[in-house]
Task: inverse folding
């Protein structure tokens, strides 16, 4: 998700000064820069990533346990397959468990004769239900085993669709792309700390560059902004970057849990099923520019396995850098959008997110200390 104007991995860009007046949206320059970066990535991502091998070579992962959401198709499926083939214990956290079991059978058949059977299992997780997220986390934590990698891969982009809300009352893009993964990440901290050094990998998007979040209007209901699917998607992805940055700061080094956002690039995946038929045809006409799912999985796999990631995360923490780790589609550190550097808004997004998912503001601190926390979406309250 990098471009000539956004690949500042030397941390020389100052964070923008916080304005006293309440910001109502992106400035024209930020908006133009965001769309330029998106167009640049679309046209040049394949050139920028030409140094990468496909599929990405992975080290042996026999001691690794990894939870991957949305892993029955697209990038998630490729990520799960490649990590399992490298020896990892992969947990497919999915809504459609039948499809997941069918996929595992197919992957096992394809792998047959090449080594030990793949170590893959299925657990149910529906991100449109925060109670389902709590159930999943409680079931996993009850095992008292380590979790080394959580990949929040599942996402939706319902292009052109009207505003829809989950049964929890939240705009669907915001819930699936941000609120539910945020809740899952916090609730799985006990297992991630047990698996230390461990990582939370959030599959983000170049589209966060045209996003804007109003912490008091996360559902885009106030009328200040007209809702479109683009507003819903880009806002949710920016909220995820902001939340990840604050979580990265709150986790002490000794906890051994690193948080990384990644851009897979512009990828032909099942997200395209929500596109208008004309746009889908355009997608098929320009395969040279658009990554396939295997290519799109490289940044997730890199963030989940590269040995230098913890060092990169710790450097950002030590430098008091306002945003957390962000890996571009060419597997290089990059800078998220200018708005993502807004520390004041990020702090408000953090607090509002915890409020919306029913967690106390000191949830992370309590979990690090080994204390229990209560979530209002816990199963007995459902």
Result:
């Amino acid at each position: 998700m990098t471009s000539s104007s956004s690949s500042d991995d030397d941390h020389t860009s100052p964070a923008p000064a916080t304005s006293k007046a309440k910001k109502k949206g992106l400035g024209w320059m930020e908006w133009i820069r965001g769309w330029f970066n998106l167009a640049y990535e679309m046209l040049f991502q394949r050139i920028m990533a030409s140094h990468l091998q496909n599929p990405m070579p992975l080290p042996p992962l026999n001691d690794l346990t990894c939870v991957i959401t949305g892993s029955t198709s697209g990038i998630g499926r490729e990520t799960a397959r490649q990590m399992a083939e490298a020896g990892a214990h992969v947990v497919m956290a999915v809504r459609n468990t039948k499809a997941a079991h069918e996929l595992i059978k197919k992957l096992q058949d394809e792998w047959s004769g090449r080594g030990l059977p793949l170590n893959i299992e299925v657990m149910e997780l529906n991100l449109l239900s925060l109670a389902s997220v709590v159930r999943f986390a409680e079931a996993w934590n009850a095992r008292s085993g380590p979790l080394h990698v959580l990949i929040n891969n599942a996402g939706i982009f319902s292009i052109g669709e009207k505003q829809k809300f989950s049964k929890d009352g939240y705009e669907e893009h915001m819930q699936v792309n941000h609120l539910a993964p945020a809740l899952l990440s916090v609730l799985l901290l006990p297992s991630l700390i047990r698996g230390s050094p461990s990582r939370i990998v959030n599959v983000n998007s170049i589209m966060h560059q045209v996003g804007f979040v109003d912490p008091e209007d996360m559902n885009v209901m106030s009328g200040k902004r007209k809702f479109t699917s683009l507003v819903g998607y880009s806002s949710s992805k920016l909220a995820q970057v902001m939340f990840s940055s604050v979580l990265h700061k709150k986790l002490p080094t000794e906890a051994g849990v690193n948080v990384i956002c990644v851009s897979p690039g512009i990828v032909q995946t099942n997200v395209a099923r929500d596109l208008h038929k004309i746009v889908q045809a355009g997608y098929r006409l320009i395969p040279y520019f658009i990554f396939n799912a295997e290519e799109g999985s490289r940044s997730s796999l890199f963030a989940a396995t590269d040995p230098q990631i913890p060092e990169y995360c710790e450097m950002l923490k030590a430098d008091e850098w306002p945003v957390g780790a962000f890996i571009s589609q060419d597997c290089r550190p990059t800078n998220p959008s200018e708005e993502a550097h807004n520390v004041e808004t990020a702090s408000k997004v953090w607090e509002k997110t915890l409020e919306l998912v029913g967690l106390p503001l000191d949830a992370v601190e309590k979990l690090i200390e080994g204390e229990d926390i209560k979530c209002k979406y816990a199963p007995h309250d459902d």
